[in-house]
């Protein structure tokens, strides 16, 4: 039998345990604040940082999972998480590592509710800082809860941002001016202009695709603001001006509002932006007919969309690339603004948009964000070791021009293909109709795919009878379309205008396209050409097959069978630097068999070989059919796919090259009738644009050549650009290759 004292002690112990358990179950998790940080990132991804106990810190990647990433993203106002990244992929953080061994079920409302070792209990290093990638879509009605204790370093977080134009401004394309509004808690709110700066406006303009801001006449806006219902956001914004997005700016102080409707001495913020030249508005046409304006020192290559590409800079007359070491959103934004776009959406590394050629001109680039050109940024002139596998690229914010609303694809099996239809005003109303397929080709299809934001063209169709359609397919509204490939929209290309002329009519002969996100990019090796060029005198009787395939000049038609032809022979090594394999357009069963050489041609004209006078007149020519497109060699780690043996598949794999040796038929220019002198030796790959590529400007190689009647000097070979008409007055040691006939 228990004594009263023992019973009392037991009861007290049970009561204490019950009280403790209830206290633990009722206790709420500590208040924390999250943010995404780090370089080389978009606003919805980054290193996870936690504000706790008055200090920002990081989260260790031990035991982290996609469930934990979902909790982080939802706590930041995003719908969901796409992935998480370990090992400080967004750079090493600083300060404390607040959380380690985090275990979340995915249903928690805060990362603080997930199980962990406890705040500040960790054996990790910052090399293990975890990062997340969230979906871009925001939670509808998400209300950003501001923790007063974490004001310092806290980024702006809102659902959306917009420029609300006045009625008269809405008629202009693009919209460059209006009231700035942010969406927070599911409602659009104005920002009080009491502490608004031009640097803030610069960031907003960059987000909307404009390179700069300008001062605005606020007088008419004050009158409008008085008539409108006001619903102010309760905070100011503090941008330095070099941010790529408003979410990179810091929250300012909380503004005292009178009934949440007026700011004490100000009015709603109005932002006015300066568009790039290619997007400058015109009241009459809604936009100015303009082509993308290439700046003299920086350009973009290999991009599928407007405002994206591999970054290339001009140095000492030669275009070269930028190494991705230290490449970040700030440097990318400098390039975007320099080219007439807004701030950068992405800073891409690892040759994501294809490999360039030539020199790597800049490495370890560091920009403040206010430079007028990338060439003004600091870079390490002594850094070595960068290859084209590390070429930097970017994607820019571009203005909303509404290009995609004036064009559509109809009848295709998916959103990336179909018959091309244009929206045209006829008799006071807008109607949809088809495009005549006369002269329709890859360049025209490229413009269509880019205008619709669908990437590159993979095919251009001159017959579309196999696609379903409605009555709009029979009405031809555009004909005679000829594009250079640089136009922003199809109606910027040459065409017949209102005087449509299409003998074949629409319907089954309407123009069509198919689009793709990736394309090949063929580049010829200049070194291989320079090192293998020589002259050969070959008897006519040994050239019958080549003559049959039109590989000799016209004078060979009447030549004596015992006469000789003088051939300028060379090897060509063609590398695929793009993002996908190069494949002939023609189907396997439509290749043409050539009995004399006993092989198939998958492309009747794969390359043009020309000898030009210094003024560009053709004096001798040759051509090469693609009788054998195959992988001769590949970069390390890449397997060959294509081989011509046994009627095999033809093509050039990404990262591989095809070599046409100098000793095979038609690998020459017939210069029998050429007189001694100075010339330009030119090779053009895929000259008829039969197969779509991400960049056609690097398909041309030009060399300086001098012929004295017995010997040929070939030197200064380069890709793209125009050959200087200046000749070399003497034969200095600059001439890299001297060849004579055999």
UniProtKB/TrEMBL annotation:
Superkingdom field: Eukaryota
PTM comment: The lysine tyrosylquinone cross-link (LTQ) is generated by condensation of the epsilon-amino group of a lysine with a topaquinone produced by oxidation of tyrosine.
Needed cofactors: Cu cation
Pfam family, one: SRCR
Main location: nucleus
Catalyses which reaction(s): L-lysyl-[protein] + O2 + H2O = (S)-2-amino-6-oxohexanoyl-[protein] + H2O2 + NH4(+)
A GO term, aspect molecular function: copper ion binding
Family membership noted in the UniProt record: Belongs to the lysyl oxidase family.
Biological role: Mediates the post-translational oxidative deamination of lysine residues on target proteins leading to the formation of deaminated lysine (allysine).
Protein name: Lysyl oxidase homolog
Species annotation: Zoarces viviparus
